[in-house]
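Closing statement on the 6-O-phosphono-beta-D-fructofuranose sub-project.
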Amino acid sequence: MSTLARCDRTPAWQELGRHFASGAARFDLRQAFDADAKRFERFSQQAPNVFADLSKNLIDARAEELLFALARQCGLQARIDAMFAGERINATEDRAVMHFLLRAPKGQQGPGTELAVVHETLDAMLAYAERIRGDHTITDVVNIGIGGSDLGPQMAVLALDEFVAPGKHFHFVSNVDGHELDGVLQGLAPEHTLFLIASKTFTTAETMANARSAKRWFEQSGGTDIAGHFAALTTNVEAAREFGISTTFGFWDWVGGRYSMWSAIGLPIALAIGAEGFRAFLAGAHAMDEHFRSTPLEQNLPVRLGLLDVWYRNFHRFTSRSIAPYHSGLKRLPAYLQQLEMESNGKQVDLDGQLLPYGTSPVLWGEPGTNGQHAYFQMLHQGTDVVPLEFLAVRDATHDLPGHHPKLLANALAQAQALMQGKKDEGGHRNFSGNRPSTFFVLERLTPESLGAFIAMYEHRVFTSGALWGINSFDQWGVELGKVLAKDIEPRLSSGDVAGLDASTAGLLQRLRQR
Ligand code: F6P
């Protein structure tokens, strides 16, 4: 097992603190560009399928150099190697972390014998996807899952709409709120519908409630062939069979829920874009895996991003980061990345369970551009808090409506420019202080391959900051307490028993029971 030095116990951390206090805190982007004609070249780079411009960030060469030193002193490379070697780096659950293996090509050297099983399952799943794509009686696919069993497939199916086979409609039901399932079921016919029950554990309360209701609806509406109209995507194939689903696609405990869309959980994506498209999606992610695994830290894009995150969170003390994808197909990307980053790095103890003296995951949030510009960008330009913003622009559009795409791209560029440059106005109200940081990502086209690469880049960036913070980015104990309490409260809603509840919960429960 690899050992990590906690970031705050390294000489580089102390040095970063000194560098920050002695001037970096007052870093000015405009002066930095004036002083260095090569700043754009120095702070931008092409990684597989993703171009990133980091030059409009509050960082100078010295800070970046010290951050690389910090990564070395913390043993980042050893941690990366440990993941790729299949070590059980998810120590609190005693599991390896090997989502990268789901996108490794056949025959590649990997830890253990898992790769052969991965490809066997992938082939079976893709053959099934192709069969359903050719089956014109199935017009509607309903994915029932939540969190990692929903957000990734939903985000990707929307993003890759251009590649989606005509004649199939995709629906995603995650919430236990019956309004959602009810709304989707209206207008569906059992003989034309395929339900995918997606749950790593096959125990998640919301998913099980929705799956039971979907099965009941199917049977009550005259459906008989459960095997033909229900498939389960799960590591708990036994539980799926007990539930009555015989068509199953499995995956393994070394795939975290929020890292699972590359596994059987990605079946909706494969149904939407086909086997070839899904393989391209995996290939894009794999190219980023290789980049992350073997590129020196200085040219390693996920590493540079993760280090910038540490710099912002722990030295500038920014508490949030916003992402603005300038592509309407990426409207679910912020929600997807929220789970990826905040469920991974929203932790307050180190690997030994000791309380951390520094901040970890920022709040990640966002909306597609240009919409956000007419909502909350006001605060990004003139608010009292600095929120680093991430732009994601796609060079080529796939529609042919004249004029739209240049307008969209011009807006993305202009916002990044305005945030940095600002504008003086003595009156105050129209003053833009500027010097507000942003990162700008460019994809040439939004394809399965480029989307796969972008998401893998983000996964590894989250890995990097998590490794430096010395936390376990792969567990999620913080979601458990609420689940347990909900189980206790549910029967009280019908019985009215408030014994042992705090006064607020008791009062609210009674209020919700009042007619
Ligand atoms: O409650 C959080 C969580 O465990 C996530 O980590 C996970 O993605 C989601 O619930 C769904 O879990 P499952 O796929 O097991 O239904």
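The two ends are 59 Å apart (CA to CA). With this model delivered, the sub-project is considered complete and its resources will be redirected to Aim 3.
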